């Protein structure tokens, strides 16, 4: 079993680090939050006094941090200067493609192997060890990261070279944001046209309008499988995080001259929803904004 440094023990990282410890790895854990550190200790991780001491001597380093600026700073200050040359570095945070490529290049200059491995699946999947990882990096890096990621997920897919994991993640989530808005609009219109919403679901879920947003994450309470809509949109995937991913997608589109008008519109709608107090609600709650009272 390996000695693994884990930095960033928040909503996602806490469960992921616990699963590595449960699998028998020695997990040296660090977070700026005392509370997160205490929870990790209770779940079998060994608290480290700072990120650099967790990294020293570790065979693998896993990071799960909020955004690109945190990843760039932690790798520059604590990971790259202190990691063993034989260690595999795995960043699971969702960050912009440009920063992911830049940090991986800096690690490579220092003779270190790094992969970007963002996840699909929320806090429940992180706790249950059923995340999907999309991995960017060399074949060698992927091969070394895979056995570690396997302990935290149900699928580990090699997306391509450095930054490809982040690219796959933001393209997927741009699609998710746009299909959720379209699904919400379709249900709102169906209601105004006098359709019974369960009946509309039964039809559309078997017709060409079907999507994951409809059949796995239906935004209408009491329709389809149990979803956050049935819990007043609590839990699930916060609208603020959907907005974060849409902003990353729009940034990447701008930097690469891609025309993404549906993605841009989804970003604008989620931005409006978050500004109006929806940040902490599941992203399917945007259906509420389609009420007349919410119109701009
Ligand atoms: P979070 O805010 O709960 O956790 C981030 C943790 O990083 C916090 O505990 C914070 O204290 C810690 N941290 C920040 N700077 C640090 C530093 N310099 N050193 C050590 N620790 C530091 O966020 P989260 O929900 O766990 O998300 C983490 C990443 O996963 C994000 O990039 C997010 O976009 C992505 N993600 C989240 C979800 C989700 O459902 N929450 C789903 C998929 C992907």
From TrEMBL:
The keyword Transmembrane does not apply. InterPro entries: 3-OH-isobutyrate_DH-rel_CS, 6-PGluconate_DH-like_C_sf, 6PGD_dom2, 6PGDH_NADP-bd, HIBADH, HIBADH-like_NADP-bd, HIBADH-related, NAD(P)-bd_dom_sf. The keyword Transferase does not apply. Pathway: Amino-acid degradation; L-valine degradation. GO terms for biological process: L-valine catabolic process. It comes from the Bacteria. GO terms for molecular function: 3-hydroxyisobutyrate dehydrogenase activity; NAD binding; NADP binding. Residues 3-160 form the 6-phosphogluconate dehydrogenase NADP-binding domain. Its EC number is 1.1.1.31. It catalyses: 3-hydroxy-2-methylpropanoate + NAD(+) = 2-methyl-3-oxopropanoate + NADH + H(+). Belongs to the HIBADH-related family. PANTHER family: 3-HYDROXYISOBUTYRATE DEHYDROGENASE, MITOCHONDRIAL, 3-HYDROXYISOBUTYRATE DEHYDROGENASE-RELATED. This is 3-hydroxyisobutyrate dehydrogenase. It comes from Sphingomicrobium lutaoense.
């Amino acid at each position: 079993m390996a000695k693994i440094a884990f930095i960033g023990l928040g909503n996602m990282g806490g469960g992921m680090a616990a699963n590595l410890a449960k699998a028998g790895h020695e997990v040296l854990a660090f977070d700026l939050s005392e509370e997160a550190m205490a929870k990790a200790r209770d779940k079998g991780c060994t608290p480290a006094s700072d990120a650099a001491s967790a990294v020293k001597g570790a065979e693998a380093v896993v990071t799960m941090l909020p955004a690109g600026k945190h990843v760039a700073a932690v790798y520059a200050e604590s990971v790259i200067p202190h990691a063993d040359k034989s260690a595999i570095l795995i960043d699971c945070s969702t960050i912009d493609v440009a920063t992911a490529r830049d940090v991986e290049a800096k690690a490579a200059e220092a003779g270190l192997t790094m992969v970007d491995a963002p996840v699909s699946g929320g806090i429940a999947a992180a706790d249950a060890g059923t995340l999907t990882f999309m991995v960017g990096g060399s074949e060698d890096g992927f091969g070394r990261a895979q056995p570690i990621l396997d302990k935290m997920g149900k699928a580990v897919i090699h997306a391509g070279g450095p930054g490809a994991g982040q690219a796959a993640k933001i393209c997927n989530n741009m699609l998710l944001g746009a299909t959720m808005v379209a699904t919400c609009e379709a249900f709102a219109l169906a209601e105004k046209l006098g359709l019974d919403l369960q009946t509309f679901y039964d039809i559309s879920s078997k017709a060409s309008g079907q999507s994951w947003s409809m059949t796995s994450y239906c935004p209408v309470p009491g329709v389809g499988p149990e979803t956050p809509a049935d819990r007043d949109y609590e839990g699930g995937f916060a609208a603020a995080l959907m907005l974060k991913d849409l902003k990353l997608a729009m940034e990447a589109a701008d930097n690469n001259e891609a025309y993404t008008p549906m993605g841009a519109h989804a970003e604008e709608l989620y931005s409006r929803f978050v500004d109006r107090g929806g940040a902490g609600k599941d992203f399917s709650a945007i259906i509420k904004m389609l009420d007349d009272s919410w119109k701009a």
